[in-house]
Request: fold
Amino acid sequence: MTNLLFITILLIGLLGCNLADDADYIEISDEMCGCFNEATAGLSEEGRDVIIEAGKNDVNFEIALTEYAQNEPVKGMQDNLVLMNLGNQGFMDCMTDIEEKYDEVYTTDSEGEILQKVMKIMQKNESCDLTYAIMKTNL
Reply:
C-alpha cells in the first residue's frame, strides 16, 4: 500500500527542531489512527474484525479478507472497496496535516526506532487496532 510509504515519510519527518518525547509519539499514533478510522468507517463490522484478528495472529490481513470474502462475497467486495480508497484525497490530506503539525519535531531515534515506538503505542490502544493490523501487515 502506497499509504505506508507516506506513513514512513511522516515518521521520518519527525527530524525537525523540537525534541520528540513519548507524548509526541502518543499524539502521532492517535492522530494517525484517527485518519485511518475515518477513512475505513465504511468497513463492515465483520471485515473490521477479520483485519484486527489477522493483526493479532500475525496473519496477512489481505489473505484473511480474501478468505472472508469467499464466505461473504457482497460484504467482502464492499470492504475491499473501502480499503482501496485509503489513498483518497481526504485520507491523504489528514496524513499531510499530521506531517505538517510535527514537522518541527526532532529525534535522534532511527526510522526503525520511531516506527517501533509508534507501533507499540498503537498495539496498546484499542482505537488503533485496525490501523495497527493494517500497518503491521505492510511493514
Notes: DSSP finds eight helices and two strands in the chain.
